[in-house]
Every structure is written in C-alpha cells, then in structure tokens.
Amino acid sequence: MLVVARRYLYLGTGFGLFWLFWYIFGSPLAQVTGIVSPSESTSVAPPTHSARNATLGFQSILALSTGPSWRTRGLFAAANLTGLSIHIPPQPPIHPDLVTTFETLGSEYIRHPSHGASVAWLAHLDMIKYTIQADLDTALIIEDDADWDVTIRSQMVRVAESVRNLTKTPENETAPYGRDWDVLWIGHCGEYWEDLFETIFYEDPTACPHKYYLGFAQGDMERMPDHQRAVYWSANPVCSFAYALSRDGSRKVIELLGAGQDEAFDVSMMHACSAGKLKCISVVPEVVHQYFPNQKFGVKSMVDLGNGEQAGPDDSEFEHIMGSTENILESARCRALWNKRCLKE
C-alpha cells in the first residue's frame, strides 16, 4: 500500500508541475499578461525596431502650428489613424519689428526672405530652440498641414536601416537611426540626385512610382530605380514639411541659420547641407508631403498670408471636401477623413 501511495504522490506532483508550467508559459492568460518563456525573453529586437513606435523612433514629434484649424484637425485625424503621438508646443508671439529687421539682415548681394517667409523662419527657429530647452536627443519637426502614408511606421523601419547602412553605424549603437547625422530630411518637395552619389536603395511597394511623382525633381526621380526608395547624403532638398534633428543638429541649425540672410528657412538649411556645414540625409521619394485643400477654394499657405495676401474661405466652406496630397500613395489624412485615396496625379 505504501508503494502504491508513493506512486500516486509522484504522479500527482508531476501533473501539478506540468499544469503550472503550461499556465505560466503556454496558456492564453500568459499571452494576455505578457509572460514569456525563457527562450523568448533572450531575443532582443534590433535598434531599428523602435522606428515603428508612436514617435517613429525619435524622442518626440513636434508640429509647428499657429493654432486649431483644418490643418491641425486633419493632422490629428491622420495621427490617430496611424498611431502617432504628436505634440504641438505653444508658439510664442513674434514682434513685428523683429520680423522687419530679420528681413533686412545681411548685405545687398544676398537674397532676403519675404515678410511671410521671415515669420515662418522665426517660427522654425523658436521650435528648434524648444528642442534644445527640452534637452531632446532627437526630434522630428513637421508642419501642421503635413501628410504621410498609412504605412509610415513600417516605412520608417526601412529608413532607419538605410540610414544606419549609409552612416556605417556600429551594430551595438542603440539609437534607431544611429548618431552620425544632424538633419534627417524625410519630408520635402524635391531633391537632386546623381548616380555617382553614395546611395542606399531598397525595394518599397509604398514608394510613389515615377508615373505619379510630381514636382521640380521629377527628372531626378526618373533616373532612379522605380518602386524603390533612396537614402543618401543631401544635395539639394527643398521645403521643410518634415525634418528630424539630432541634439547636435539642433544647435548647429540655430548657429548657422539664426541670423537669416537667405531666401527662406528651408533654402538656407539646404545651402548649409550642400556646403557640408550640416550632416544631412535625404529620403527620396519623401515619406511626408504637404496636403492641399481642394484647389477650387483657393486656400492660401501661411507664408502667403504672412505676405499680406487676402485670406481665403473659412474652414467650414472647404474642410469637408477632400483635397489631395502629392507623392504619397495612401494618404493618412484622406483615409482618416474620407476613407479614400487622394494621390494627386
């Protein structure tokens, strides 16, 4: 009898250990609570994996905006759809005399910014100063009418991989994009390219095909492989729809661009990139572009309004009617607001 009892005791103990192990590592409850097996816990995600998080691997995404409007409502609709976390810091007022003075800085032999371009330039500088004051390691700065693809989080993982390859980032570097850059230009209206440029190409079905690409850089695009995206050291990017800054990059931009003396903020930054004063990397085709309200309403840009052009219609007249976005296959704004595609062709 004693031998039989011991057998049942051992058998019961064995079944008990089996069910305990299954409960901890194999049960649905384990999946819900996030308990993982020892073998799973040893696997470490690559640094580029964090480029698909809510801030695309940057410490913060900051939107430059003067306040609530159709721009910000569409921006947050797109952000909610794609799971992005975007912060709009309050924009400090800019004294009119400062704007007037900024327009005239420099010699008579340089191109000066218009009044509206000066207002925009000073606003960008204030935003960059904010990144320094907040001690951000990296920040992605976007304009409030920016638009992007519904797949941007997976897109940015491939961008991060390519940036690391271009900059020859060591494998043990934990920053998703590495650290050997000042400006990462992911949103622009065109960029120059030559086949002698050191370029990282990769297949990307979400890249805008040549037949749909619009803008002054269309000829440069056609020399690149179609249905691919390119990452290379910047040559001539224009428009500041979206650009990331490293900690060092923020300080350099303030030092180099803080006194104006050029046509516009984006042009001045492009000149600093081309001259090698800033280490800049461009992504082509861009992954962020500008959304345009339906053109029949004649909605003006913030720079146009700053230059004194007559204000367009009230938001209520056009906001509910779909506009378009160039060079972005599946607009997050249009999908969020109208559940449609609005690629401008």
Attribute tags:
single chain, 345 residues, alpha+beta, Spore Coat Polysaccharide Biosynthesis Protein SpsA, Chain A, seven-stranded mixed beta sheet, three-stranded antiparallel beta sheet, 10 strands, globular, disordered N terminus, transmembrane, membrane
Structure overview:
This protein has helices spanning 2-25, 28-33, 38-41, 70-82, 96-104, 115-133, 152-166, 218-222, 247-257, 265-274, 302-306, 315-318, 332-338, and strands spanning 60-64, 138-143, 146-148, 183-187, 199-203, 228-233, 242-246, 280-284, 288-292, 324-325. The chain is an alpha+beta fold and 345 residues long. The chain has one domain (46-290): Spore Coat Polysaccharide Biosynthesis Protein SpsA, Chain A. A seven-stranded mixed beta sheet has the order 1-2-7-4-8-6-5, with helices on both faces. Helix 5 crosses helix 6. The longest helix has 24 residues, at 2-25. The protein starts with a helix and ends in a 7-residue tail after the last helix. The model is unreliable at 1-13 and 15-41 (pLDDT under 50).
Topology:
Elements: H1 2-25, H2 28-33, H3 38-41, E1 60-64, H4 70-82, H5 96-104, H6 115-133, E2 138-143, E3 146-148, H7 152-166, E4 183-187, E5 199-203, H8 218-222, E6 228-233, E7 242-246, H9 247-257, H10 265-274, E8 280-284, E9 288-292, H11 302-306, H12 315-318, E10 324-325, H13 332-338
Parallel strand pairs: 1-2, 4-8
Antiparallel strand pairs: 2-7, 3-9, 4-7, 5-6, 6-8, 9-10
Keywords: Membrane, Transmembrane, Transmembrane helix
Organism: Aspergillus caelatus
Transmembrane segments: 7-25
